[in-house]
Predict the structure.
Amino acid sequence: MVTLVKVSSDVTMTIWNIASGGEEVTWKAHKQRVGEIAFSPDGRILATGSSDGTAKLWDPVTGREVAVLRGHLLGVRSIAFSPDGQRLATGSQGKEAVKLWDIATRREVATLEGQGFLFYFVAFSPDGNTLVAVNIEGTPHLWRAPLLADLDTVEDAKAKAR
């Protein structure tokens, strides 16, 4: 199914089937404004980011909420899937410029600090190794995007040291 997502000012979202021209499903997505949406590379997950500080994962066929990712105090301003669909990046502000999430576990795996206000753009490089975020002043920030295997190795080392 080829889909189009419409986000309304009343925080509802609508999935449209482009082929048939028909509305498939409409639902209330967040408590506050939905600012960003992204489909996973395989199209099976729709991610939304909101001023309410959450990102949500949805089944784009049914509109069913799959997960709520909580952690941004100042709202989610940008959102992007890694090319392999295993990670999600959410952009916000300052010390929590970008958070990385493991899609399989629905857990936050890293917080990347940035300078400035309102990271309104976030994206992975095509190989998934680099993450870029741009703040409202237009200043780009680049990070090596940690792979989930790298993060697991760090966590294992921390656990052994305890």
